[in-house]
Prior knowledge:
By secondary structure, the protein is an alpha/beta fold. It has twelve helices and eight strands. Mean pLDDT is 86; it is low at 5-9, 23-44 and 46-50.
Amino acid sequence: MSIYHKSASLPPFVAFIYFGGYLVRRGVTGRSGRINNLAERRSDGHPILTKPKMSWIREDAPKFFQKFCANILKAGPMPKHIAFIMDGNRRFARKQHVERQEGHTQGFDKLAQTLRWCLDMDVREVTVYAFSIENFKRSQEEVDGLMELARQKFARLLQEKEKLDRYGVRIRVPGDLTLLPQDIQELIAKAVTSTSHNDKCFLNVCFAYTSRHEITNAVREMAWGVEQGLLQPSDVTESLLDQCLYTSHSPDPDMLIRTSGEVRLSDFLLWQTAYSCLVFQSVLWPEFTFWNLYQAILRYQVNYHAIQEVRASHRDDVEREERELDLSVALQRLRHGEGVAGDDPTAGTAAAAEEEEEAARQVACERRERTQRFLQALERKRTAYFEELSAEPAR
């Protein structure tokens, strides 16, 4: 069960800080949600959008009051991993009477700013829904524009390797990259391999991704493991499927934020957010502010203990199911002559129970060994894909 408590009341001191942020936001911008780069307007009254900064991580120092509030927020439990559905770029473009592509460009600039805020608040992992497989169904003009934007941004990322290394940022790109143009695959592979040594912060850019496609691929990987003799059918468990997902190296998100007012997940991290705090906000993504992020983290803190309880309960359930599976396999072995037979006169005695437990432990040990060999082979296969692509000459 995912935790989303929209109407949760806030502790008094937290409410005071949030209200203070609201007053400052109103005083600085004149109205909530206004973005700073809409300063000039054309003669027809439509805004002139200034060219956004291209950097993946902004170097802006936090404002004093933002830093003050963030430090208070960090006195409570903080999410270590936040996922974003960055929705509203096209509606923002219509609202500002600009081209769709400009809306997507502004959305990227907002991502860079948000990553800066996350760094300042010690959120060490961020996952973003950059491009869904469903987006291929949009007009060819828009898809081509998004692909060109991806080329620019991943090329820029490679140019900023020194900055990424300074912050210790590792880039991962979950998704079916084979659906993308070859040159974009190569740029992504270079970005992934060139930052693979970093381990302080993690940015997961989900590209050519949907959750159902990811889960289907994980099932195929396990089937491949059985075909190769690395796994037995009884080795297929919930925890093994979890380790075959694109996001296997990341903990599940503590919180997922979706902007634009839509209250749905749109096939994003369905498996991983089963026990996460879900926050839906009406603000369009390019208008997302520090205070929107602040409010979302407050929601997480209010629901923190409930989240931890359901996660612990789920972990216990998974471990119990695996023990039961191991015992079932062990009993089958024993009944087929590898130990106590089904009509053994000692069946049901303490000695028989001890033998069954020992057989179950042996089964669990063998399963873990097979699973480890399979996961190592799977990792080698995936690493080889990125290394081969990143070795391709620049086009």
